[in-house]
């Protein structure tokens, strides 16, 4: 019985150590992102924000206008979720490198499409030239729970190789919709 008590304590200690590690990494990420900006840029941003908030308080947009705009955005979001079947549950972004004309960010995204859950992890490289900004996706990693479907596994592998997120989302939407129809049909016959 004493071993069980010790094991419970050891498990709790390990869980707390992992939580401390995650919080430390998150803190370092925040510190790293804040060091990318000079004091001048931070002061400019603060002054710009103050001007914007002062302008809003002078009556440029009333609270009722903002509430109506928010309700409109929520309606649009609800429509898009019903149309596509996508519901994103979490997103995190970490800036890995930032220079004047180049930014590398690591994104983690998870969600559901109809009844299928997915997780994405990728790096986004944005290069800014004089006229345009170009973006390139690399290190794409997709995790899905469609274990027994080899066709979907092959598709996910090809998307990961090409880094084509648009094709993934279009195909996942259609696949998940029909997957849900098949699931309901088989439940009906059981």
UniProtKB/TrEMBL annotation:
Protein name: Centromere protein P
InterPro entries linked: CENP-P (IPR027801)
UniProt keywords, alphabetically: Coiled coil
Domain of life: Eukaryota
Species for this entry: Manacus vitellinus
PANTHER family to which the protein is assigned, alphabetical: CENTROMERE PROTEIN P
Coiled coil: 6-33
Biological processes per GO annotation: CENP-A containing chromatin assembly
Pfam families: CENP-P
